[in-house]
């Protein structure tokens, strides 16, 4: 039986949960569909050892409910995956949101019915439903990428993937473990895998910049202090470029002397992780500042890795600092000082094939009992193009997005009325704190719906020219930075055949909010509103 609703929300991660909670409050009949068997989104799937958020726990949490903010006590500066998943379960319980969801329901198709002015969706298990509004809260990093390596499926040992890690303990003691991939996931997992494995071999294609998290437990005193500072911290985050309270050094790089520069780099280093890229304004724009950051990083690396050859392999060569997301680690580089850990440089020793017993490179064969793939995601578009989405006159999103995706503010797609994409390409979300961007995106979607309902419109659709202009603006801003020179998932470079271009909006969270507010205040300028 096909059920009928006002709104379908796909996904039960941060954005989906927020939207569903607030849709109910707005009096909408909402059905949530989630591929996982419970809430959590990213934090449901990515259960690999060492998985942590690289945004501080106090910031990476909902701000919409003061009691929720006060009652949830984070235990560490950077929360682990289990703790974030517990938090999202707490949110789901507290706002009784699960009753709106059907779990274990992965969307396979969605099509717009122009006559009935609604979306009809189907899941892989055959569930069907209709609704006037379809909110896609499917996540920016949720379509895993498993490389098509020769012989991949012949491996007779254990195959693990960071983004689909099994529930419950995985015993790797005494086993010869290989890891392919050294992005954030690999960098977080490797130190913990090394603690268990008898031999750990890391196959690295590109070296990344990784900065220690300087993680620590939050004691009662720090917690009390954080609570006192929270209102101000939130205010700074909502007005900041990345949804967090941190800002760059107030003095421009060019006006600082050597000593001041070192002090600034040192301070931002000890802030930890991705915050290093914020040391100076323009660090990811100006090659001179970037190079100074690179030299500082390389000095730190020399302190962390003893063997000069291993260190050289771990030194990033293919991108400026911060133009791929800086990894936030806990003992990553130090792991390579251990005698049972081997680093294989796939640049000099390309991977030839996976065999039933291990991995063969151009140089030799190595035996493994376990292969861990930490090979990333088809970011920002992959979760949507995996679904057969059909808009007006049967047009296909998969086809439309075989080139670079054109969106209006990330949320609106020309040709797809009432399809609202949260944290989509053209939004700043993956460059920002997802907890706050999810609130902003959920609100924007619900405001668009309310605007239509209050005025008797049955559909809202981004105009093609508005989407083109927004996308061109977004690409133009990215062109002014060093980001385009990095072969990253931000630009689609990690997926063979994917159209290249900087996918997120780089103008900053606050600038984006301001633009959304202008558009909303002008009656959702740039969208076509109609009634049938
Ligand atoms: P990433 O950052 O995309 O990293 C994937 C890693 O896997 C990266 O080192 C890739 O090398 C490597 N990779 C991918 N395909 C291959 C093949 N075929 N052979 C060898 N190595 C390969 O994904 P993560 O999951 O680590 O992190 C994603 C985001 O999640 C992160 O930025 C945070 O925002 C949270 P490459 O660099 O492409 O040469």
TrEMBL record:
Keywords assigned by UniProt, alphabetized: FAD, Flavoprotein, Monooxygenase, NADP, Oxidoreductase
Keyword presence, NADP: yes
Any Pfam family hit: Pyr_redox_3
Cofactor(s) required for function per UniProt: FAD
Gene3D superfamilies linked: FAD/NAD(P)-binding domain
Family: Belongs to the FAD-binding monooxygenase family.
Protein name from the UniProt record: NAD(P)/FAD-dependent oxidoreductase
Phylogenetic lineage: Bacteria, Bacillati, Actinomycetota, Actinomycetes, Micrococcales
């Amino acid at each position: 039986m096909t059920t009928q609703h006002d709104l379908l929300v796909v996904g039960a991660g941060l954005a989906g949960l927020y939207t569903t909670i607030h849709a109910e409050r707005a009096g909408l009949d909402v059905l949530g569909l989630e591929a996982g068997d419970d809430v959590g989104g990213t934090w449901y799937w990515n259960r690999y050892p060492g998985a942590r958020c690289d945004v501080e726990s106090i910031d990476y949490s909902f701000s919409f409910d003061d009691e929720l903010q006060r009652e949830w006590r984070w235990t560490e500066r950077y929360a682990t995956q289990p703790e974030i998943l517990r938090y999202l379960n707490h949110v789901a319980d507290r706002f009784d949101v699960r009753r709106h969801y059907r779990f274990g329901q992965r969307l396979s198709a969605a099509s717009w019915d122009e006559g009935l002015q609604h979306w009809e969706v189907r899941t892989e298990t055959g569930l069907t439903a209709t609704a006037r509004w379809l909110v896609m809260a499917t996540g920016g990093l949720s379509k895993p990428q498993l490389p098509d390596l020769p012989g991949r499926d012949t491996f007779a040992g254990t195959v693990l993937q960071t983004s689909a890690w099994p529930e419950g303990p995985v015993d790797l003691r005494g086993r010869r473990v290989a890891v392919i991939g050294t992005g954030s996931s690999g960098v977080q997992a490797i130190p913990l895998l090394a603690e268990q494995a008898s031999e750990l071999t890391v196959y690295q294609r590109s070296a990344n910049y990784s900065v220690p998290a300087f993680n620590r437990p939050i004691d009662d005193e720090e917690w009390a202090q954080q609570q006192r500072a929270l209102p101000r911290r939130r205010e700074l985050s909502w007005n900041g470029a990345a949804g967090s309270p941190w800002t760059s050094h107030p003095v421009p790089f060019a006006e600082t002397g050597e000593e001041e520069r070192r002090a600034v780099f040192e301070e931002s280093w000890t802030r930890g992780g991705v915050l290093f890229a914020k040391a100076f304004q323009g660090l990811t724009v100006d090659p001179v500042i970037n190079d100074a950051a690179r030299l500082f990083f390389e000095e730190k690396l020399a302190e962390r890795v003893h063997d000069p050859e291993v260190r050289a392999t771990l030194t990033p060569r293919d991108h400026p600092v911060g133009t791929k997301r800086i990894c936030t680690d806990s003992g990553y580089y130090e792991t390579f000082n251990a005698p049972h850990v081997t680093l294989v440089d796939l640049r000099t020793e390309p991977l030839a094939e996976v065999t039933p017993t291990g991995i063969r490179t151009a140089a030799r064969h190595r035996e493994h009992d376990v292969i861990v793939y930490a090979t990333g995601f088809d970011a920002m578009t992959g979760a949507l193009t995996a679904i057969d989405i059909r808009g007006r006159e049967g047009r296909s999103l998969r086809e439309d997005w075989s080139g670079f995706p054109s969106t209006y503010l990330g949320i609106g797609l020309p040709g797809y009325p009432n399809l609202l994409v949260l944290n989509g390409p053209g939004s700043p979300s993956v460059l920002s704190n997802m907890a706050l961007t999810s609130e902003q995106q959920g609100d924007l979607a619900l405001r668009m719906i309310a605007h239509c309902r209050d005025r008797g419109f049955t559909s809202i659709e981004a105009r093609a020219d508005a989407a083109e202009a927004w996308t061109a603006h977004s690409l133009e801003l990215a062109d002014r930075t060093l980001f385009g020179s990095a072969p990253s998932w931000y630009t689609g470079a990690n997926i063979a055949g994917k159209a290249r271009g900087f996918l997120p909006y780089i103008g900053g969270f606050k600038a984006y909010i301001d633009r959304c507010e202008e558009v909303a205040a002008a009656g959702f300028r740039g969208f076509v509103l109609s009634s049938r």
